Amino acid sequence: MNHFSLNLKKIRQAKRMSLEELALKTNYELDVLHGIEEGVLEPDIHLLVLMSDVLRSNPNELLGYSLTSYSSVYDVKDIHTVSKNQ
After folding, report:
1. Rounded to 5 degrees, what angle do the CA atoms 36, 11, 22 make?
2. Mean pLDDT of all residues in 3-32
3. Which domains does the chain have, with CATH numbers?
4. What counts of helices (H) and strands (E) characterise the chain?
């Protein structure tokens, strides 16, 4: 299992949602979601956003990122400067 699959399972269970219910709400096959949750498959960006919406979560939370993990690598003003220059 990878961080994403562990986060997905933890968040889904915290919302008291079964994998079957997530499959119904995302309109994806249960086998696909099971593979993602087991770390065998990885979701594309569309499914990542869709699962976030259904779970009422943030994609960053599913991916295991937070503002503090960004600020531990970069100073927040550096992130702002980089995004302004692009």
Report:
1. 55
2. 96
3. 3-85 (1.10.260.40)
4. 7, 0
Look up the pTM and report it: 0.73
Whether the CB-CB separation of 40 and 1 falls below 8 Å is answered with: no
Structure-block tokens of residue 2: 């990878």
pLDDT over 80 at 78, yes or no: no
How confident is the model at residue 76, as a pLDDT?
Answer: 47
On the question of pLDDT at 82 being above 70, the answer is no
Can you state the angle between helices 30-37 and 3-14, rounded to 10 degrees? Answer: 120
Q: Which helix (H) or strand (E) holds 85?
A: helix 76-85
Q: What are the distances in angstroms from CA 8 to CA 2, 41, 64, 75, 80? A: 10, 13, 10, 28, 29
